[in-house]
Amino acid sequence: MKDVAKDTILVHAGRDPKNNHGIVNPPVYHCSTVLFPTLDALEDSDRRPFEVINYGRVGTPTTFAFEKAVAELEGGFGAVNTGSGLSAISIALSAVTKAGDHVLITDSAYGPTRRFANETLKGYGVEVEFFDPNIGAGIAALLRPNTCAVFLESPGSLTFEIQDVPAIAAAAKTVGAVVMIDNTWATPLFFRPFDHGVDLSIHAATKYMVGHADAMLGAIVCRDEALWTTVKKTATRFGVCAGPDDLFLGLRGLRSMAVRLKQHQESALILADWLAARPDITRVLHPARPDFPGHALWKRDFTGSSGLFSALLTPVPRAALAAFFDGLELFGIGYSWGGFESLILPARPAGVRTATRWDEPGHLLRFHAGLEHPDDLIRDLDAAFRRLNAAL
């Protein structure tokens, strides 16, 4: 589809009712074995292993529908599905690295990304180096002839630094490094990586794409055919694929993602402003707020914000912090985000940083604004602060 809004692409991409008996949604294909009518057909599938249905793990019509929809939405050549966001990150990094290579990763990256790099890539003989997420064009000083990949996450999902993606990508291209980004927070609706020099866009589709806290799913969108082939081969060799029901739930979630994100965005900003006015909050970390250090970059490159942000609570004893959390009624205490439900999590970035320091006093609280009415969420938080202050 050309010259239509992303909201429209979300509704129509990956569907073909005319060739599916007029049915709106594509069917869910549960498949391991695929049969071929002739020897010629079997051998032809071996010559084109990723373009035809020849084995359930490689792909089915359900697989291809999800991948087509995500690739069209992101504006890439093609997409590769995986069983989770972490598997998408792992496959993307594995696809472009080999022993002796050097990889640069933002210091604000998702914790499991760091662990995969430090414990698995290093074990394969890849040198891993973390860099200040605010480095911008200064990353040129860290690039080497053997730098094969630069991994970005903008904003970081705990401390929300916005990276200068175009500047970093331009520098990386001087040594031929593949630039990849975890684009889960913004989704293709609010940030278009390929317009800013990125080669691979990675999504924990578990989050906003699925949107209902009921499926694990990942996606890697590739700028061009050569990268897509490399990533697809890597996923196939590792035996990585998502189940058909989760793929269907991903397709279902895409249809309403634009509408949901508008509410996530609105509620998160309301909560962020309310928190910023409280005396027990020293700082709110939300890229769309004018007082955020990276706001100018966010405003330049992004078209919106999602429901995830953090706030710094003044130092309090653990008993008071427990009083805040333990009586919550609407906010769940959990590690995920992106679903319809609101969540809150205490975060500890200081223990994982290596290229930069996180020495902010107090407790970092990460919020995900769900689809509840923001007034009700504020009442829940107000009661939590009353419990906290009563425990001091």
From TrEMBL:
Modified residues (N6-(pyridoxal phosphate)lysine): 207
Reaction(s) the record says it catalyses: L,L-cystathionine + H2O = L-homocysteine + pyruvate + NH4(+)
Keywords for this protein: Lyase, Pyridoxal phosphate
InterPro entries in UniProt: Cys/Met-Metab_PyrdxlP-dep_enz (IPR000277), Cys_b_lyase_bac (IPR006233), PyrdxlP-dep_Trfase (IPR015424), PyrdxlP-dep_Trfase_major (IPR015421), PyrdxlP-dep_Trfase_small (IPR015422)
EC number of the protein: 4.4.1.8
Cofactor: pyridoxal 5'-phosphate
Domain of life: Bacteria
CDD domains (UniProt xref): CGS_like (cd00614)
Record SUPFAM superfamilies: PLP-dependent transferases
Biological process according to GO: L-cysteine catabolic process to pyruvate; transsulfuration
Enzyme class: lyase
GO molecular function: cysteine-S-conjugate beta-lyase activity; pyridoxal phosphate binding
Family label: Belongs to the trans-sulfuration enzymes family.
PANTHER family assigned: CYSTATHIONINE BETA-LYASE-RELATED
Name by which UniProt lists this protein: Cystathionine beta-lyase
